[in-house]
Amino acid sequence: MTHIVDLRSDTVTKPTDAMRHAMVNSAVGDDVYGEDPTVNALERKIAAMLDKQAALFVPSGTMANLIAVMVHCSQRGSEAMVGNMSHIFKYEQGGAAHLGGVLLTTLENKPDGTFDLDEFEKRIRGSDIHEPVTAMVAVENTHNYCGGKVLPQSWLDDLYARAAKHSIPVHMDGARLFNACAAQRSEPATVVRGAASVSICFSKGLSAPVGSVLVGDCHFIQKARRLRKMLGGGMRQAGVLAAAALVALDEVVPNLEHDHRRAQVLATTIKSLCLKNFTVDLQNTQTNILLVRIPESSPITADKVVQRLAQVCLSETQGDCKTADDEGVIVKAIYFNSKTIRFTLHCGIEDEDLWLAIMKITFVFKEFEASV
Ligand SMILES: Cc1ncc(COP(=O)(O)O)c(C=O)c1O
Description:
It comes from Plutella xylostella (Diamondback moth). This is Aromatic amino acid beta-eliminating lyase/threonine aldolase domain-containing protein. Helix content is 41%, strand content 16%. The strands form 3 sheets. A 7-stranded mixed beta sheet has the order 2-8-7-6-5-3-4, with helices on both faces. The chain has a 3-stranded antiparallel beta sheet with strand order 9-12-11, covered by helices on one side. The protein is of the alpha/beta class and 372 residues long. Strand 5, helix 7 (153-165) and strand 6 (170-173) form a beta-alpha-beta unit. The mean pLDDT is 97. The radius of gyration is 22 Å and the shape is globular. The protein has 2 domains: 2-10 and 255-371, Aspartate Aminotransferase, domain 1 (Alpha-Beta Complex); 17-251, Aspartate Aminotransferase, domain 2 (3-Layer(aba) Sandwich). It contains 15 helices and 12 strands. The structure holds pyridoxal-5'-phosphate (PLP). Pyridoxal-5'-phosphate (PLP) binds at residues 60-62, 65, 87, 140, 144, 173, 175, 201, 203, 212.
């Protein structure tokens, strides 16, 4: 028998008892006709929280981002500027080009998830007949690939002002917007105040089973609603899903800071081991995502470490690396590249799981350290 601590992603979270109860008892209707009272309640609530006019419930974060790009870049061949480390660019199959005829061009993300704003302004195109027309810019908050980084409000406000000067709408991929708000103790409406559109996921750290929302003004959401239908995202009695999302706002959002605290504890412990081959940046572990870096010069690779964390050896169960019931411990993690391991904390991880994960990670990291 083994005890599994799954730190691959916050998408592995499962609906809570309160969510399951709400799902069973939710009032539903046909949402394509706009008649699902629970979906309507969720859309109204989120729009109000973000101080925007309207919202649209969609099946996934990928679809929310795609619809946003397709609305802002409705003229085929328009350009959307995105970070080179953004989810939209790296992990959404180029859907904007595939389905929207949109040219994605990249601004280089800095380690904190931002990009150079002078560069952004310089790169805006459209006045020359040879060029595509820049029709939007996207940011990601928190920034997944940069390790759950919260975009600084001063930087965001500067971006909002500069983009407005050029009439370029800003889309925020806020899959983890509530993590950003919890980390900097800000209201969501403040963080998104200059954004024309925002996407938020309920199926990540918020623990709901399915669903994202796209938020913006009425005109934007009207167009988004048409595109959702075209993309096959028109759901019918979707109130069973929206019910879980509504519970998430009351039950899970207020507790996100515990995930951040646990990420800090894990980061601090790894740092205190003072290992040459595994480093963490404590100050830059801001939310629920922790990146462990392996120096380029090290012969150790992240995939091997992730593989080893998922195995239990005899030396562990015969020694001290086990649960009180003598079970071996598996820690599931992912690697971003050959030198970066990602651990993600979420509400499925209690303090006891954290301590078991720390025990196992310490054991495995020391084993690798001794082997080189
Ligand atoms: C920042 C960010 N945006 C968008 C998505 C896409 O969400 P989904 O998996 O619901 O399509 C993810 C998924 O992990 C993400 O991390």
